[in-house]
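**Reference record**
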Amino acid sequence: GSDKQDALMERIFRKYFCEEKSLSREEVLMEAVEEAGLDKQAASQVLSDASAFKDDVALQKKKFARGVSGVPFFLFNGMEGVSGAQPPEVFASIFEELEQTSN
């Protein structure tokens, strides 16, 4: 759950920023996994599987190609995109335009 994810990220940040350990070393990541109370065997399998994040990487590439560069990002009808926080007028304008094109 999110509690364990938070715990893992806390350990990873501490190892990198406070303990100056390299996160490219598997043993450092496995220490963080163990300290966070996660399954070491499952984590080791994910780290050793080159295709483990294939779908995630593909999704990130697709988002990048669409111009997603900020958070939040709003995509309307799979075409119109707005990145970052926007005033209500921007959304009103987009909704009006979408309504006109759908009629």
User: Anything to note?
Assistant: The radius of gyration is 20 Å. The chain has a mean pLDDT of 88. The first strand starts at residue 73 and ends at 76. Helices lie at 2-18, 26-35, 40-48, 54-65, 88-102.
